[in-house]
Amino acid sequence: MWVGYWNSLTGDRVEYAPWQSAARGFPDVPRSDFQKAVQYFENGKRYSGAEAVFHLLASVPGWYWTLWLYQHIPGLAALTEWLYAFVAGHRNAGYKVTRALWGKSAENASYSIASSLFSRALALIYLIAFASFGRQIRGLIGAQGILPVAEFLVEVKRQIGASGFWQAPTLFWWANGELALEFIVWGGAALACVAAIARPHSWGQKAAFAVLFACYLSIVTGGQIFMGYQWDYLLLEAGFLAIFLKPAYTRVWLFRWLLFRLMLESGAVKLLSGDPSWRGLTALAVHYETQPFPTPVAWYMMQAPLWFQKVSTASVFFVELILPFLMFGPRRLKQIAAIGTILFEILILLTGNYTFFNLLAIALCLFLLDDRFLSRIAGDRPLRQKPRHPGSIKLVRSNRYVSAFLFAFLMALSLPQLGGMIGIEAPVPVGRALAWASPFGVVNSYGLFATMTTTRPEISIEGSNDDIEWQPYIFRYKPGPLNRAPGWVAPSQPRLDWQMWFAALGTYRENPWLLRFMMRLLQGSPPVLQLMERNPFPGQPPKYIRATVYRYRFTNFDERRQTGNWWKRESLGTYFPPISLRGQ
Questions:
Q1: Whole-structure pTM value
Q2: Which of 459, 473, 488 is nearest to 531 (CA)?
Q3: Is the dihedral of CA 294, 295, 297, 299 positive or negative?
């Protein structure tokens, strides 16, 4: 099996023969040496055992580093020779282990199907992201929006000066009128459609991904607080890698590394935060109720007994802290990691509205599944790798140089970032490089719900014309009317509704954007009012506006049967006192 794997790597560079026939061609070599270990002959020299394997791999372009490690890492040669001898002495057991971890053959895995599927999936996710924000862009960052991007850039330039672009990279520096906003966001949506139908890995698709990255980076920067979510930066990081996407080992490995960091960091922050609900395995006993946008399924999950919630929480740690390490193992372990992660993301998708986040995580799992597996899933016979013309030597070398540079650049940034989570401080030059790259979103840190919110405060925005009778504005998706069921909004994201959830966890002084929002309601701003489900003052805006806060909780089976309500609430008082515009 392993000779077959080596042969798939070396092709006709190396000639293979059973030791019984090879021994006759080398009478000077004792037959016992042939019986004990593989022998490799090259340029009149003979290598045996693990050393023979490393020299054989060194004949494969891009694999010379394995021999370099064998020759230069202290103790590695002795360790690998011992392992080789151990396996050679237990070949039957080694065969069973190989079958269990690799399957029927240990051939060199290819990822052409995974790469093609991912490129199309990423284009569709870009389309979702652009279209979702496009429907809200005027109300959020337009001229009459809550946080106009033009005002934001003026302030950045005033505080930072000419270097403002490097701290806030966006195309809106050159044009930020209403038409420019619409052009960037809907132009990005149209280009995502082009990328979805373009030939995978073609120069046209790569160029489309480069422009999509620039456009999405522009709205992430210009969107300010409304676009600062982890899935936005995950899309930027995956989108940056997609510019260089090829079914080559190094490029595929970098996508796998991104998925590994996403999952591992998400689990690590839960333990490192010291949050008692995670350490006590009670986090999911409150999560379904307190998460930003639960689904109807979350209501039912909330009714489950405590033992079930503890088992579920322990399963989260297993998926986020154990499965990621299988992503770098043999093909069967990769498949287990992929299937486990995909099922985990589907469960999250069913119980919470997390925009395109779960879809993007599932798409990244494709790089754990090789062509043989995916073709079998599709009901076809396992695909045989078609020989491809490598192109000119110059092009081949150019691709290798790009892969090497990309690998070195991203690892130089991501390893210190990963180490920083456990208190390993990066050297000053690396820290500066991380700070420089941070605004561009090419390497990011991840970790949702590091500390679990155990209650659900909800802000109600209310207007009045007499400061006596108050009427609430109704948001489209966040809890309001008690009898309104939790909705399904993913993969879209109502950015204002999301930000209201975060604002309720703090004070209005910690959320200055909220005052701008209330001011726009007093002004009757049409694009802001379009973000709401119901405006209680359709004729003209109210004279006064305030914010109160309630604690929302799910009802139980008996309460819902009696009242028909999904929610119950209690008043927690005033969040923001009544205000009015000057002159009213």
A1: 0.91
A2: 473
A3: positive
Q: What span, in angstroms and rounded, lies between the C-alpha atoms of 321 and 264?
A: 5
DSSP string, 297-320: HHHHHHTS-HHHHHHHHHHHHIII
- Nearest one of 25, 22, 554, 130 to 304, comparing CA atoms: 554
- CA–CA separation, 146 and 503 (whole Å): 15
State the angle between helix axes of 178-197 and 203-222 in degrees (0 to 180), rounded to the nearest 10.
Answer: 150
Structure tokens given for 382: 């396992």
Pair 217, 170: CB distance under 8 Å:
yes
pLDDT digit string, tens, across residues 457-515: 999 999 999 989 999 999 999 999 999 999 999 999 999 999 999 999 999 999 999 99
Dihedral sign for Cα 70, 76, 77, 81, please: negative
pLDDT tens digits for range 483-497: 999 999 999 999 999
E-assigned strand segments in 349-486: 457-464, 471-472, 474-475
Which of 193, 190, 185, 203 has its CA nearest to residue 244? 203
The Cα–Cα gap between 461 and 474 comes to 8
Q: Which neighbouring-strand residues pair with 352?
A: 294
Instruction: Give the three-state DSSP class for 238.
Output: helix
- Could you write out the three-class secondary structure of 514-555? HHHHHHHHHHCCHHHHCCEEECCCCCCCCCEEEEEEEEEEEC
Identity of residue 214: A
Euclidean distance between CA atoms 368 and 18, whole angstroms: 33
